Backbone:
């Protein structure tokens, strides 16, 4: 095997794939990157058996062959070489020689036979969606914050891709809050799949500035993200996702329009005094036009801020300030809609006049 | 079938490297072998190709060596592979929990069936030990012939010792034997609120009739009957009616009826006609037995040493015992360590008393004196007036149990002559505690004052 490639390209590709090749100690070969050249097509592959990252590397010159090398070592070596060098990698059995101008090294690789073969998505049975990269990046970041780390409820550790009313929605919940975003307005094929949050985070990290579109393909138990030269294949979480639509309250009594920046400010102020009570703050609406956020810390004092906005109905509810700030930060518009009711029903936060993104926060018992 | 796979795995293990074996075969299981169509469950689709391409021959040979016919081997992704320890019952969906959070504001306890019984309580999963064998044998005799010898059945004991479990189990077993029996389980507080509802809506008579039709009435947490004379009278009437008809009545409480303030004397004496049975704190061996049974029930693996450690260190009640147990299992799942490793590296501490604020002996002595309306000087005098003496002994008892002071030190603190007096005092209180519930309450209250 032999390839010739610029330092920048190789370093970027290696950084992309080597992130998941660290940490799994049970099978040492999983710490390696597989370099394969097949009919002039070069691919770098790593896997942790939950997901795999494949980077197709454009090279100027190559000879067929395959070898595996410790991913982290190779990535660090290459990234420390001077920019603009042309790097030559050549394997003789399991010895891998790397040459770049005056620098050269030999790394002991392993034969590729032991590297696990990756599952593939059959194109003809796959359900495929295409999304603009900016839209994808934003939407996933907005939704993923609500996914859970609780390994005892595997379904909630992922982001749920599901289609209804001809649109593709993504959703996540940890039992205290819930996020939903309409990713594509109009789709023809249907999907219901839970993608592990960890895999999505890897996808987010792999996005390049010059990527324009991402292709997402699902089959029964796999999902593949394709962006530019990078492909990420991940398992799906085999569990049933809760019917989250039912949780979105339909008729909250109190609806207010608020300036987002201002609400963030008063919530942060209130949060300072809410530390001793687990971040619990009180939101209160008073006709005709007072929206106030309060918190009380018995030993330090209390805080009370007001925002003027038209109010139609009185009411109050307690929320966790951290969840509220997360929600507000994930919204984008200058003004937002904040809906809640007295105590029991969850609060809804949305960008003003934009129903695509919904963020729901459970009230605290008070 | 599972054993066949275990044998096959043992054979495979010898042929490939340990790393490969633990990576590829650890979470596999054999789903079916019918007509030579072998189905093997694997963790996710990343495993399928590798197993098929690399290890198919080894698997086939291993299965054939175990006399299994093999025509075709399929791999199936299956997440329900057995995990090492299963943490506390996993709630089905987040919806349930979200909804419950909302609902819990209005409704306190979900009741599975309209007779109020929760089917998870059975006699089989009630662990019998020296702390409760008497009550259980009485329970069994009730199941054989309700409404005869042990009627009313009065069961008492501290919180978390299994009162509710035992009486619900009686109800469930009776129902299993004779599904047509009319059984009703209710905490006394629900009995009240239902009764008040019935009165307000003018259906007081219906309420009465509903209860008179019952074959078995189970009342839980009877100690909450306080100060509600009208409802108490209603309960008394229902009690009498059912008793006359030889219907089984079962009542639980955290203390004897005579010690509950404001219980009518007539009612109090009637409740203990057939004797009162108590559930006591389990001893060390009982606690170990409970934990072992619980581990088996949950399909969890836990070292005997870990069980002994938990049993030794949780001294409050069975509910706390099971709570600590679940927490440790959950942590071991999350951290990937066995329960014993967790305990040994100090990640968990189940010693309850360590959570309390340390106090000085002086404070304890003062608090005890104050509680009994004595000055510290009075209490620490040589007076042998009964109530002063008791106070002094209580102070010695608490000093010994809570601070673990030596008897000599205690003698100095409370101003008695020497350590033998202290030993006697502590022993006296220990003995009295078993019988004297007022004293038990008093000491609890004092402790609350000390640590609160």
Residues:
């Amino acid at each position: 095997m032999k390839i010739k490639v610029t330092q920048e390209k190789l370093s970027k590709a290696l950084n992309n794939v080597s992130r998941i090749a660290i940490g799994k100690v049970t099978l040492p070969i999983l710490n390696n990157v597989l370099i394969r050249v097949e009919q002039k097509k070069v691919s770098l592959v790593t896997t942790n058996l939950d997901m795999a990252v494949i980077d197709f590397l454009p090279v100027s010159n190559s000879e067929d062959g395959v070898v595996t090398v410790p991913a982290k070592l190779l990535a660090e070596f290459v990234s420390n070489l001077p920019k603009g060098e042309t790097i030559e990698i050549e394997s003789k059995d399991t010895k891998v020689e790397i040459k770049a101008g005056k620098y050269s090294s030999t790394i002991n690789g392993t034969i590729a036979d032991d590297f696990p073969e990756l599952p593939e998505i059959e194109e003809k049975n796959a359900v495929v969606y295409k999304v603009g990269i900016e839209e994808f990046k934003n939407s996933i970041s907005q939704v993923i914050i609500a996914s859970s780390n609780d390994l005892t409820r595997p379904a909630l550790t992922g982001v749920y891709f599901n289609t209804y009313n001809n649109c593709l929605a993504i959703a996540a919940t940890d039992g205290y809050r819930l996020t939903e975003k309409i990713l594509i307005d109009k789709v023809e094929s249907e999907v219901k799949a839970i993608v592990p949050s960890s895999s999505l985070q890897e996808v987010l990290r792999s996005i390049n500035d010059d990527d324009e579109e991402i292709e997402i393909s699902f089959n029964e138990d796999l999902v593949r993200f394709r962006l530019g030269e990078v492909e990420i294949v991940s398992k799906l979480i085999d569990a049933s996702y809760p019917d989250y639509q039912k949780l979105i309250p339909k008729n909250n009594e109190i609806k207010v329009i608020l300036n987002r920046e201002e609400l963030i400010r008063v919530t942060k102020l209130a949060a300072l005094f809410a530390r001793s009570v687990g971040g619990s703050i009180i939101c209160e609406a008073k006709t005709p036009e007072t929206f106030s956020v309060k918190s009380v810390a018995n030993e330090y004092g209390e805080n009370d801020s007001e925002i003027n906005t038209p109010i139609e109905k009185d009411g109050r509810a307690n929320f966790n300030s951290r969840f509220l700030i997360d929600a507000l930060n994930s919204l984008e518009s200058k003004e937002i809609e904040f809906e809640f009711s007295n105590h029991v029903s969850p609060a809804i936060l949305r960008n003003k006049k934009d129903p695509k993104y919904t963020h729901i926060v459970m009230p605290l018992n008070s | 079938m599972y054993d066949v796979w275990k044998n096959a795995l043992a054979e495979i293990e010898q042929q490939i490297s340990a790393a490969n074996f633990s990576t590829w075969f650890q979470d596999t299981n054999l789903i079916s072998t019918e007509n030579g169509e072998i189905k093997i469950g694997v963790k996710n689709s990343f495993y399928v190709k590798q197993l098929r391409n690399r290890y198919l021959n080894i698997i086939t040979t291993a299965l054939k060596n175990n006399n299994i016919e093999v025509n075709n081997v399929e791999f199936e992704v299956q997440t329900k592979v057995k995990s090492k320890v299963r943490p506390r019952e996993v709630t089905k969906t987040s919806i349930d929990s979200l909804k419950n959070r909302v609902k819990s504001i209005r409704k306190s306890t979900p009741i599975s069936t309209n007779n109020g019984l929760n089917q998870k309580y059975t006699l089989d999963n009630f662990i019998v030990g020296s702390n409760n064998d008497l009550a259980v044998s009485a329970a069994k005799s009730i199941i054989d012939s309700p409404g005869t010898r042990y009627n009313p059945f009065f069961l008492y004991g501290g919180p978390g010792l299994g009162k509710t479990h035992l009486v619900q189990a009686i109800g469930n077993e009776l129902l299993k034997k004779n599904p047509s029996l009319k059984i009703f389980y209710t905490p006394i507080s629900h009995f009240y609120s239902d009764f008040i509802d019935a009165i307000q809506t003018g259906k007081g008579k219906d309420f009465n009739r509903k209860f008179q039709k019952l074959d078995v009435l189970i009342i839980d947490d009877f100690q909450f009957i306080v100060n509600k004379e009208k409802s108490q009278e209603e309960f008394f009437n229902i009690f009498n009616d059912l008793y006359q008809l030889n219907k089984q009545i079962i009542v639980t409480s955290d203390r004897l009826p005579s010690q509950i303030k404001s219980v009518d004397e007539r009612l109090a004496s009637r409740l203990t006609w057939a004797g009162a049975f108590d559930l006591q704190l389990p001893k060390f061996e009982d606690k170990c037995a409970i934990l072992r049974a619980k581990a088996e029930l949950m399909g969890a693996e836990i070292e005997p040493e870990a069980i002994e450690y938990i049993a030794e260190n949780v001294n409050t009640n069975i509910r706390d015992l099971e709570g600590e147990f679940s927490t440790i299992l959950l942590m071991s799942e999350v951290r990937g360590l066995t329960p014993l490793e967790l305990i040994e590296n100090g990640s968990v501490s189940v010693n309850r008393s360590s959570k309390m604020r340390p106090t000085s002996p002086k404070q304890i002595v003062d608090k005890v004196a104050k509680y009994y309306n004595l000055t510290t000087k009075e209490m620490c005098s040589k007076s042998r007036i009964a109530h002063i003496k008791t106070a002094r002994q209580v102070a010695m008892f608490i000093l010994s149990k809570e601070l673990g002071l030596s008897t000599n030190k205690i003698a100095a603190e409370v101003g008695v002559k020497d350590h033998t007096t202290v030993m006697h005092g502590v022993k006296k209180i220990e003995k009295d505690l078993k019988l004297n519930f007022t004293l038990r309450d008093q000491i609890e209250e004092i402790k609350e004052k000390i640590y609160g």
About this structure: The CA atoms of residues 236 and 267 of chain B lie 6 Å apart. The beta strands of chain B are 29-32, 37-42, 72-77, 153-156, 183-187, 216-220, 248-253, 276-278.
